[in-house]
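Ticket #4471: structure output looks truncated?

Reporter: J.K.
Steps to reproduce: submitted the chain below (263 residues) through the standard prediction queue, then opened the result file.
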Amino acid sequence: MTGEVGTGKTTLLKAVLNTFDKGSIATAFVFNPRLEVLDFFEFILTDFGVAPTTRTKAAMLLQLNGWLIERYRTHQLCAIIVDEAQNLSWELLEEIRLLTNLETASDKLVQIVLSGQPELEEKLYHPSLRQLRQRISLWCRTQPLTIGETQAYIEERMRIAGATEPVFMPEAAELVHHYSKGIPRIINLLCEHTLIFAYAEQIKLIPAHIVESVGLELDLVQHPFNISNSAMQALMKRSTQPNMLDTITSVADSEDSLKESEI
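Returned output as attached by the reporter:
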């Protein structure tokens, strides 16, 4: 899974992990992939709940393979999830490819999920990683929100927080999208500061000029948050298509609700 910074990759991963039955699916979540090879294998074993007996690559691989086989015999699934995978070294990417060789005659012993910024996708297209790329069975990309999706996202977040009537004027929501480029994390940041500003000024229905003031305060005019060319192209393409507003509710529900005191 790839996507621009702040588009909710880690949130989606954790939301999926929370749906797993711990008794039938074991997971190892690597949140910091800047590791040496031995540290990587030790981290995986430990997160699976297996104490490494010997700190050598061969021993840990044998121990991991044996543990995976035992899980397979009891019809249990195992998955390794690597977040911020664009930071994986070339050496670790090759080790991950070799982990896909852990299999029986008919099934893989472990499923591997790589999640990272667009640089991960660029890395995977390097000729030296063609073997790993060929083994990827499913690709997905998180995209910035369109204007319509941004408005629906804000409305849903406010509803979760307890709002029973509109808080942002339509022009204000459009300006939030303009400054944030549709990145949910930046939308959250802008809206949080805007709500605090509006609360201090005792303004119930937030106009566009309040968002503009916050954008200037956060220096989003002179130094906007840039997104990759691939993400921008995807956003422009999606802006000409019907809005996927039915996806907003599930995404918003997986985030922490805005504080009621900020409404």
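Triage note (M.O.): checked the attachment and the full token line is present. Residues 242-263 have pLDDT under 50 and may be disordered.
Status: closed, working as intended.
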